[in-house]
Amino acid sequence: MTSATLPLPDRDWADDPTDAQIEHLRALYPTEPEVDRTLTRKMKRRALGPYRRMDLDEFVRCVEFFLSTHIDDPFRVSDTRWFTGGVSKIQMGFTLHRKDSESWASERMVVRMDPAEGSNATSRLREFELVGAVQGTVPVPRPHFIDVEGEFFPEPALIYSYVSGVTKPSTTTTGKISGLGTNFGPGAREPLADQFMSSLATLHTFDLSATTFTSLSRPRIGTDDAAWWLLNQARRTWEEDRAEDLPLMDVAEQWMRHHLPVLDHVGIVHGDYRSGNFLYDESTLEITAWLDWERGHLGDRHRDLAWTTQSTFGHYDEDGRYLVCGLVPEDDFYRRYEDATGLAVDPKKITFYKILNAYQIVVSTLASAHRVAKLGKSHQDVVLCRVKGMAAVAADELNTLLNEVL
Amino acid sequence: MDHSRNTLGALRKSLLDGVAPAVDRSDPLASEQLPLVVDYLEFLGTRIYRIHERSRFELGEYLRMAEGLLARLPQSATAATATLAEHIDAGRTARECASTGTTELIELASALATTVSTVVQDESLSDDVRRALGRWVVESSRPLLAFQRSWYAPFGFEADHGRLRSIDELL
C-alpha cells in the first residue's frame, strides 16, 4: 500500500460543519446561552478561511472608526503598538486623547480582539461585564468599549484601560511559559500572597444580588447546574475540535457525569486565577490588575481552587515546601481561604474539579489547538502546535487523577 | 538515502543567519515567532527518523488496550466484541508486516482508539463492566502518555525533565 497517498484520520467534517451537525452538538450538550452562542458562532464561521494578519495602520483605522461611533467629542489616537504575550487574543496598546469641554484628557488603553478562532472560544461580552462588575473590589482594568459581534473590528473586541505592572520579577528566569512556575522570590511572596488570597475571597463571596449580567447565567444552588454546564461546554468543544479519539477522555467524561457535585454557594469564578495572570508593581509589591477573565463565570469556588492549586503553576521553596502559584504553602492556602471567606473547602469537590480542569486543558491543547492550527485560524498557530507538549502532561495528570477515583 | 535532517538544519541556519537580522524588532509577533519556528525545526530534526517507530509503538499500545478491553467484555456484548476483534486483527496484521507504511500505522491506531472509545461509552453495558473497562483504559494509557511526554519534553512543559524516560528506552 502506498501510505503517502492515504489521508490521515482527522475527523474532517469538523473543518466545515453542516447546520445539522452544529445543531446536533448543541442539543447533545446544553450549556449557558452565552457559551452556546460563542461555540455556535465558532462553528458557523469555521469554513470562512484562515486568519489574515492586519498591519498596525489597518488595525488603528478599525479603532478610530469604532471610537467615532462611540465618542461624540473630538478625539485622537496616538502611541499605537502591538502587545506581545497573548496566545489567545490579539492586543494593541494606544493612547486615547479626548476633548472634554475646553481641555484634552489622555488615557492609555488596550484593545483585546479574538483571532478568527482561538484555542478557547470565549465571549468578550462576558469578560467586559465581569471586569465591570468587580471594579472597585478587585484590581482590574477599567472596561471602556466593546464590539460584541465584530461589527467594527474583524472579530469581537473590547477596549479597556492600560494598567502598568509586571507578571514576574524582571530578573527571574522562571515563568517563561505563560507565568508557569514563577518564582517571585522570598521577599515578595508574603505581600503578594496576602493580596492574592484577599482578591480570591472577594470574588467568591461577591454580592451578586445587586448585579445584573446579560451574558452570564446563574446556576441554581442545590443542583449540579454549575458542573454540568462546564462539563457540557468542554465535551462539546472536544467533539467540535479534536482530530482523533483518546479513550481516556471518554472514561473521564463517564466518571464526571456520574459524580457531578451539587452547588452550595454561587460566586464569581475567575477561571484562570494564577501567577502570570496578575500584574504587580515591583517596587511597592502591590497587585495592580487581574487579567485574562475569558474563562470567568458564575459558579462553584472549587473550580477556581482546583485550578489555582495545579502543580504546574507553583514550585518548591528554599525549605522544600510546595508553594501554590509560588506564593502560599498548600496547607496554608486552604486554611487562609476558609478564614477569609467563611466558606468550606470540600476535598471531594476539589477532586472533581481537578479532573474537569485537566480534561478541559486536554480539550484546549490537544483538540482545539490542533483544529485552529490546521485551519490557520489564529495569529499564533505556531504556538498552538507547540502546546501539544502540554496536552501530554495534562492527559497524564488526568490519568493519575482517574486512577485515584476509579 | 534521505537527507531531510540535513535540510532541516539548513533551514534553521537560513532563518537564524539570513532572516532573523532582517526582522523588525519593533514587531513583537515576528520577534516572538521566529525563534519558535527555529526551535521547532531543531526539534523535528531529532524526531523525523523516529516517527515511523513512534507510529508502530502507538499502534502496539492501542492493540494492547483493545485486547485488554476485549478480555473484559461479557459474552453478551456481541456487537462490541465483533468490532473490536475486527480492528485488532487488522492492526495486528499490519504491525507484524514490515512493509506497512507510517500513515497506515497511524490510521489503524486511530481506528482502534475510536473503537475503544465507542465501547467505553456503551450505555448498554453494566456499571461493573464499565468500571472495569475504565480502570483498564487508565492503566493501559500509562505507557502511551509516558511516551508522549518524553517525545514532547523539549518543548519545556515538564516541571522535572529529568524524571522522564528517554524515547530510546521507550521505543
What's this model, at a glance?
The complex is a heterodimer of chains A (406) and B (171). By secondary structure, chain A is an alpha+beta fold.
Describe this structure in words.
- The complex is a heterodimer of chains A (406) and B (171).
- Chain A is built from twelve helices and twelve strands.
- With 406 residues, chain A is α+β, with helices and mostly antiparallel strands.
- In chain A, the strands form four sheets. Chain A has a five-stranded antiparallel sheet with strand order 1-2-3-5-4, with helices on both faces. Chain A has a three-stranded antiparallel sheet with strand order 10-11-12. In chain A, strands 6-9 form a two-stranded antiparallel ribbon.
- In chain A, a hairpin with a 3-residue loop joins strand 11 and strand 12.
- In chain A, helix 5 packs across helix 9, helix 7 packs across helix 10 and helix 7 packs across helix 12.
- The longest helix of chain A has 29 residues.
- Chain A is globular, with a radius of gyration of 21 Å.
- The N terminus of chain A is likely disordered.
- Chain B is an all-alpha fold.
- Chain B has a domain of 99 residues.
- Chain B contains seven helices and no strands.
- In chain B, helix 1 runs antiparallel to helix 2 and helix 4 runs antiparallel to helix 5.
- The longest helix of chain B has 26 residues.
- The radius of gyration of chain B is 21 Å and the shape is elongated.
- The two termini of chain B are 23 Å apart.
- The model of chain B has no long low-confidence stretch (mean pLDDT 94).
- At the A-B interface, strand 1, helix 7, helix 11 and helix 12 of A face helix 2, helix 5 and helix 6 of B.
Residue-averaged pLDDT of chain A: 93
Tell me the series of helices and strands of chain B, N- to C-terminal: HHHHHHH
Shape of chain B: elongated
Radius of gyration of chain A, whole Å: 21 Å
Low-pLDDT regions of chain B: none
The main sheet of chain A comes to: 5 strands, antiparallel
Structural class of chain A: alpha+beta
Write down the overall geometry of chain A.
Answer: globular
Rg over alpha carbons of chain B? 21 Å
What is the N-to-C succession of helices and strands of chain A? HHHEEEHEEHHHEEEEHEEEHHHH
The main sheet of chain A orders its strands as 1-2-3-5-4
Assembly state here? heterodimer
Please identify the structural class of chain B as seen in this structure.
Answer: mainly alpha
